[in-house]
Design a protein that fits this description.
single chain, alpha/beta, Rossmann fold, four-stranded parallel beta sheet, 4 strands, globular, Periplasmic binding protein domain-containing protein, Peripla_BP_I
Length: 129
Amino acid sequence: MPILSRIFGGLLFASYLAAIGCHRHTTAVAVLPRTTGTPLWENLHQGIAEEAASQKLKIYWNAPADGGAYNEQMKLYAGLQSKSYGGFILSPDETLSARTAVLDTMARGVPVVVVDDDLGPRPRRCSRT
């Protein structure tokens, strides 16, 4: 199982790299899973960290300690919006509370990869200038 999670982490990060194609100036990515300390998320963390290191990108990894703490997760996400992250990888604990926040982030041109949820916004390609 850990190998599959690490492979998934690498694939997830590859999808993030595709999303930031027009934002190459970024050096850091924020990742917010549903919770921390579980084997699924820790293996995913390792896969993302390995892929990020190979791309010379830094990751910020944080999540609520307990699953189901969607208010805490959205507070973390909102607090990161003023930082200079080039994008986000988010696995929202609750779809409706995350939808507006994700759409607002995308409207500012910041890429967001949503994991294990269907928030509804269609993927957009950024225009290259």
